[in-house]
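SAMPLE LOG
Freezer: B-3
Tube label: C17
Construct: single chain, 646 aa
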Amino acid sequence: RRAAALGSSRAAARLGIVYARGDGVDKDAAEAATWHRLAAQRGDPAGQFNYATALQNGLGVETDRAEARAWYLRSALQGYAASYGALGEIHALGLGVDVDAARAAAFYAVGAHRGHAPSQHAYAVALRLGDGVAKDVAGAMRWFEKAAAQGFTDAEVALATILIDGDGVPRAVAAGVERLEACAQRGAAACIVALADLYSSGPAELRDLPRALVLYEAAAEGNDAHALHALGWHYEHGQGVAADATRAYGYYARCADLTGDDAGDCMGSLGRAYQNGLGTARDPARAAVMFRRAHERGSALGTCDLGEALRDGFGVAADEAAAAELFATAARAGIARCQLLHARRLLVSPAESRNAMEWLHKASEGGETLARIEIVRALMRQDSPLRDEAAGLAYAERCAADGYPPCLGEAGIQLEGQPGAAARTRGRAMLERAAEAGDRRSAMRLGLAAYHGTGQPRDETAARHWLTLAGPHQLGPARLARLDVKAGDITAARQRLGEPAAKGNSLARFQLAALCATAGADCGAEMPTPASWLASVEADGEEFGRELLNNVAWAVATDPLAPRSDAQRLIELNGQARYGLLTDDASHADTWAALLARAGRTQEACLAQQRVLTLARREKTEAADLLLMQQRRQAYCRGLPWDQLD
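STRUCTURE (predicted):
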């Protein structure tokens, strides 16, 4: 400190580092920045670099990227190699300037030639990819070797990966693995994690999940975010270990306050754990916080998650404009799900339809299969500016030939919606082809249409066939159980409802509880009761609990085989619920009226539905939905429940 006070730029630079690191003093970013600035003003190149870094990242000073760039340049002109690397990163990432890969590569090259290991690694990456410089794999290998020789482990990992993949060089798997093993033995976390990734998801001949998990655990001891994320994923999905939601959450939770590039993705998974109640209580607000942290740490997936939270008002105030911006950002970063979401928003504007189609194709190429359905819909929907039925049908056939029959199902849905019996017949035929080929959505649509008599006479035999093909999800088990009860096989109904109820299907759980409350169901003490069902619904909190009650009530109210007792039981449970149906919400009031009608209280339903219409008009409900509400009122006033699947 005395030397710095007497004018030593080097001492001032050293003091800045002491306060930045907390070496023998309390960490103090503002005090560190003060000494960095003094050293920089006195011409010390390291001080100039450190002051620029503080300005670039807002460490103890206000962020000022233009000023940061100026100080990096002053330092670089004095030959400070790390400043060349920083300038390369600024131009590579567009930090306060336009992205310029060529300028980035040029700065990296100077830093590399001056012996700066991170610059050598970055320049090697540019050479390997041909990013801003002519592609030169051999040159990349030389620079990776130079960086690795200085102990830069990312370069060591890159060399091993190139050898294992044979990317531009003769494939040498054993040499690549040996290189990683040696690096991991030296305790380098990056190499330990890379080796674990190799054994977890690398070439089939190298996979060794037990070894991968041991390595991930070793890296996780040092709170490596990538390792924690990988362990959480393995326990969440039961890969190499028994699925354990609580342990998965435990690993994700350890990422909550970490920094670094890998922490963002782990925080995103922690957010999804809070979102879905994975190993912890569902907590929308906490989920939104973690999605925002993931986004701020550069996780493109976290950016996409945050966009969805803002779109839906999930744990945070809804903000459509911010959501749209985040979707676009994540789409540009290559997140296929957000490419799909971005495309859907663009499709709303006819002027953006072709741009939207380009994003749909990118999403499809990125593995987002729902984008394929959107492509068929955009080509076949009657009001689409991209409408080309022949192209849509041809795409659907190609899609099905690639092993994705839901494209055929979507084409069938679009044909069914067209006027004329011929189009509807063609549509049904395509739905049947898709269902027989394994498309559960098509099978469910066909099964529910036969069950409810939508667009055709009710056909319980056909309903059973298609709903069985659809598998044990959504409404299928509940509707099949109704058919079992009608056939007099209560035991089959109970068995059919058991598995989906245990997995969280709330409708199946309610029907099982109702069945067990009825004589002849032969349920044990372990089976749910109406009261325990209501408790499980409310355990999800007010927002989710209320909507879950609404959804189950609607499914029962519109079920032609539901007994009056089930509807009456729901009416009574609604009266006991902390989070009951909202009387001033058109959707909830519509459900309430339908429940009354299913319970045989049609005159009450007739009066209740008139209030639904009043609420719907106040809420500016779309004309098609308003017409259905009017039709329901007419049915109730004639003494009939509503059996149609809307």
